[in-house]
C-alpha cells in the first residue's frame, strides 16, 4: 500500500494560500434586486386575482390561473426598477419618450418599451493596435486601456448604433494615427504624451455620442522578435561607445594633469624630491616595512641638499 504523488499534491492544494497582490477578485454589482422586485410584483398581482376570484366564485379553476398569470405579468411589465448606476431609454410607439431611472418607473404595456439600459459608471475597456506602423515604418503591437463613461444617455442611445463598440473602434483608429507620428525610439519615451493626445482626440470625437473619455493608458508595446535582437545589439553598441568616450576623456584629463605636474617638477626640483619621499613612504607602508627602490631614490632623503636647492 503506497501513496501516489497525485494524492500528495491534492492534499497540498487543499491548504489555503494567501492571495497575491496582483490578483483581482470579482466584486461587481448585481441586478438581482431588480429581478426579485419583478418577481414580487408578479406574485402580488397573481395572488390578488386568485384571492378575489376565489372569494367571488368560491373556487379556483384553470381560467383563474390563466387570468392570475396574465395579471401578474402585466404588473411586472408595468412597474420596473432601475439600479442607481443605470438609466433606461424609453421609446413610445418607436419615438423617444424619456430617460427613466434610477429607482422605480412606469411604462405603458404594448406602447412603451425599454430600448436600452445604459450604465453611467466609469467603464474600463482594453484594446490593441496590431501591426501599427511607426513613423520609421516599424510594425508594433500596442496594448492599451481606456477609461470612459456615459454622461448623456439620450445621445448614447440615439446618436450611435452601438456606443461601446464605437468607442473602441475610435480608440484603435486614434492609436494607430498617434503611433504613425513618432519613431520607434521615441515611442517609449513619449508614452505619457501620447496618452494625453489620445485622450484629447477621443474626448472631442466621443463628445457627440454623450461619452466622456477619462484617460487612455498604454500598457505594453511589442516589437517583432527579429527586431528585438537588432535593437538590443544597437543599445549595447551605444553603451560601449559611450563608455569608451568617457574613458578617453578621463585619460585626456589625466595626461593633462601629468603635463602640469611635470612642469611644476621642472620649475621646482624640490617638489620632485618631496614626491620621491612620499612614494618611498607609501611603498614602505604597503610593503610592511620592506622597501625596494632604485638607489637614486635615496637622494630624496638628503634634506640638506633639498634646502640648498
UniProtKB/TrEMBL annotation:
Residues 77-235 form the Band domain. InterPro entries: Band-7_stomatin-like, Band_7. PANTHER family: AT06885P-RELATED, BAND 7 PROTEIN-RELATED. This is Slipin family protein. It comes from Adlercreutzia faecimuris. The lineage of its organism: Bacteria, Bacillati, Actinomycetota, Coriobacteriia, Eggerthellales.
Amino acid at each position: 500500500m503506497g501513496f501516489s504523488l497525485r494524492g500528495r499534491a491534492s492534499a497540498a492544494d487543499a491548504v489555503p494560500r494567501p492571495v497575491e497582490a496582483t490578483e483581482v477578485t470579482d466584486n461587481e454589482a448585481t441586478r438581482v434586486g431588480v429581478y426579485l422586485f419583478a418577481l414580487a410584483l408578479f406574485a402580488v398581482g397573481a395572488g390578488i386575482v386568485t384571492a378575489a376570484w376565489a372569494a367571488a366564485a368560491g373556487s379556483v379553476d384553470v381560467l383563474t390561473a390563466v387570468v392570475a398569470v396574465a395579471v401578474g405579468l402585466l404588473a411586472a411589465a408595468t412597474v420596473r426598477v432601475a439600479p442607481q448606476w443605470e438609466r433606461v431609454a424609453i421609446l413610445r410607439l418607436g419615438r423617444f419618450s424619456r430617460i427613466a431611472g434610477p429607482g422605480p418607473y412606469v411604462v405603458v404595456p404594448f406602447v412603451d418599451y425599454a430600448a436600452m439600459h445604459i450604465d453611467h459608471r466609469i467603464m474600463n475597456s482594453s484594446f490593441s493596435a496590431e501591426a501599427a506602423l511607426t513613423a520609421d515604418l516599424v510594425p508594433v503591437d500596442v496594448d492599451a486601456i481606456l477609461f470612459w463613461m456615459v454622461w448623456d444617455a439620450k445621445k448614447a442611445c440615439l446618436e450611435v448604433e452601438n456606443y461601446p463598440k464605437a468607442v473602441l473602434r475610435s480608440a484603435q483608429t486614434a492609436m494607430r494615427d498617434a503611433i504613425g507620428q513618432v519613431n520607434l525610439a521615441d515611442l517609449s519615451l513619449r508614452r505619457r504624451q501620447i496618452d494625453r493626445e489620445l485622450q484629447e482626440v477621443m474626448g472631442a470625437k466621443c463628445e457627440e455620442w454623450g461619452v466622456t473619455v477619462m484617460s487612455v493608458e498604454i500598457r505594453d508595446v511589442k516589437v517583432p522578435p527579429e527586431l528585438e535582437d537588432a535593437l538590443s545589439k544597437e543599445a549595447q553598441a551605444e553603451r560601449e561607445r559611450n563608455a569608451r568616450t568617457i574613458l578617453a576623456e578621463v585619460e585626456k584629463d589625466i595626461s593633462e594633469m601629468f603635463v602640469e605636474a611635470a612642469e611644476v617638477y621642472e620649475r621646482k626640483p624640490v617638489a620632485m624630491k618631496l614626491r620621491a619621499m612620499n612614494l618611498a613612504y607609501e611603498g614602505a607602508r604597503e610593503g610592511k616595512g620592506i622597501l625596494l627602490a632604485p638607489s637614486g631614490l635615496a637622494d630624496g632623503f638628503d634634506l640638506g641638499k633639498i634646502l640648498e636647492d
